[in-house]
Amino acid sequence: MLERISQLKTKLYKPIARITLFLISIALVTYLLPKTGKFAYEYQNGTPWKHQTLIAPFDFPIYKTQAEVTSETNSAVQNHRPYFKKDTTVSVNISQRFNQDFKQYINSNGSKYSTISNSSYKDTSAFAYIQQLIDHNLQQLYAKGIIMLPENYIDAAPEFELMLIKGSFVEPYELYELEQQTSAYQKLGELTNLSLSTLNDSAQTEAKLLINDLQLNKYIEANIIINNERNTLELSRLKDNISLTSGRVLARQRIIDQGEIVTNETEKIIDSLKRKYEANIVSDTDYYFILAGQFLLVALMFTSIFLFLLYFRKDVYHSISSIGFILLITVLMVVFASLKQFFNHFPFYIIPFAILPIIIRTFLDSRLAFFMHVITILICAFFAQNSFEFVFMQIPVGLVAMFSLFRMTRRSHIVRAAMFIILTYALIYTALTLWKEGDLNNIDPLLYVYFVANGVMLLMVYPLIYIFERLFGFLSDVTLIELSDTNHPILRDMAEATPGTFQHSIQVGNLAQEVAYKLNANPALVRAGAMYHDIGKMASPMFFTENQAGGLNPHSKLDFEESAQIVINHIENGVKLALKHKLPRQIIDFITTHQGTTKTRYFYNSFINKYPEQTPDISSFTYPGPTPFTKETAILMMADSIEAASRSLKTYTDDEIDKLVEKIIAIQIEEEQFINAPITFREISEAKEVFKNKLKNIYHARIEYPDIKKK
Question: Which of 206, 261, 300, 355 is nearest to 47 (CA)?
Answer without folding.
Answer: 261
